Amino acid sequence: MFNFRFERMRNSLLARLVALWIALLASAAATAYLLFGLYTQSTAVQISQAEIAVGRACREIIDRYTVFIRKGEAVPGSEDLVGIVSRALGASPGIEGGIWSSAAGSIAYAFPSYEGSGPKTDLPEAERGAISAVNAESLHLGRSVVNQRLSRTQALLVQACPLPGREAGLTAWTMTRAHVNDGPAYTRFLAALGFLSVAVIGAAAFLGRFLYGYSRRIARLEAALAAPRREDADLAHLERTGERELDRLVDALNAAGLRLREAREQAVAAERFAVLGRLSADIAHEIRNPIAAMRLKAENALATGDPQRAEIALRAILGQIGRVDALVRDLLHLTQPRMLLREPTDLRRLLSETAQLHEDQARGCGLRIVVETDGLPGAEHPHIDRPQVQRGLDNLLLNALRHGPPGSVVTLTGRRILREGAARLHLLVSDQGPGVDPALRPQIFEPFVTGRSDGTGLGLAIVSKVALAHRGEARLLESERATTFLLDLPWQPS
């Protein structure tokens, strides 16, 4: 069962669209992750380039300081040191720096590429601690040291290099800022991420709305097709959904339903003609036999001229006329439409009266009729057409009395049952006879189907018509103990 459902989900268009939606979201997440990685890599490159620049500037200060002290014999003054730093950083935009003494702190500072209103000569106080720490570390280690301090929008890079010379405790330092969340790379990243977000959200919203509308339309079609209807009812006429592809299916189903209805009408018409043909043939056969018998009796009586033979022939002719009259009466009961006159009916009284009508015939056959009404409620009565139901019970009782062996019992039972929450009336007639020939059971309620040579085959057909008129059914119950016919009728009309 699970595999079957999985195959249905996997092969459905809706499942494929949902999978496409999930793939779209997954690809958007992967793309966003890739963009972030590229931006992070770009930021790392900027920091690396800034680190190279401060290192080059720091070495430039060392080179110029070394050249200066080699040329001069006196210790350079503060103005000389500022000049050395300015010339060293002049070709390095965005980099500031100076010379640091372990004893006196900053002894020279320059920022030649400063873009303010005038030259910047003061050491930035906010970074004094970081500058002091990196210079102290470089002096202690005796080599170049670079420190990074990252914030949300920028990376601060400070590098210190020991200065050679006669004066101990001096270091050169350079500093720059790399704007990691600013500039062209950051702008491109935000633009790409924004475009991706808008595209993905728009596509997901569009696809989600499409899936919702598509599933609702399919659900309406399924509900219309699955709505309960009679077995002989036509296919439901489906309304167009507004989706071009689905409307093609709707039009095809409506066209198929129209063709099915036409084919059913043709089949019903053909079946009516076939039934009419069989009925005409059976009626002709049933009437022809008595007429042939009457003709033979009359010819024999006329040929002999014996008054006694003529009397016997007339009595036989009257018997055959009665047979034809019963046949015509049953045919009228079977074919004439009649409106149901439902009314609350005392079923115990109806069953008792029906049984009494056949008591004499039952005694003549050596049979006994038993009425069982224990399954009926005391005060509530079913709504039925009493004369028609009694006619159906008459035919069932006559059928049972003809087949029951002498000394046996014919049972007439009435009971009220509940089926699917609705009350039903069950009327049963059982006999201990040999039962119905299995070959006749599928057609036992059709006209002129009988297992007796002297029967017309219309009694059970009348029973079936009474049941159908009440929107019920007549059935032959399979039982090992008795042959039982059932009239299953609604307790009240729906």
UniProtKB/TrEMBL annotation:
Residues annotated as domain Histidine kinase: 282-493
Cofactor: Mg(2+); Mn(2+)
Catalyses which reaction(s): ATP + protein L-histidine = ADP + protein N-phospho-L-histidine
CDD domains xrefs: HATPase, HisKA
Topology relative to the membrane: Multi-pass membrane protein
Gene3D superfamilies (UniProt xref): 1.10.287.130, Histidine kinase-like ATPase, C-terminal domain (3.30.565.10)
Pfam families cross-referenced by the UniProt entry: HATPase_c (PF02518), HisKA (PF00512)
Localization: Cell membrane
Enzyme class label: transferase
Enzyme Commission number(s) of this protein: 2.7.13.3
Keyword annotations of the record: ATP-binding, Cell membrane, Hydrolase, Kinase, Magnesium, Manganese, Membrane, Nucleotide-binding, Phosphoprotein, Protein phosphatase, Stress response, Transferase, Transmembrane, Transmembrane helix, Two-component regulatory system, Virulence
Transmembrane residue ranges: 189-212
Protein's UniProt name: Signal transduction histidine-protein kinase/phosphatase MprB
Species this protein is from: Methylorubrum suomiense
Encoding gene per record: sasA_18
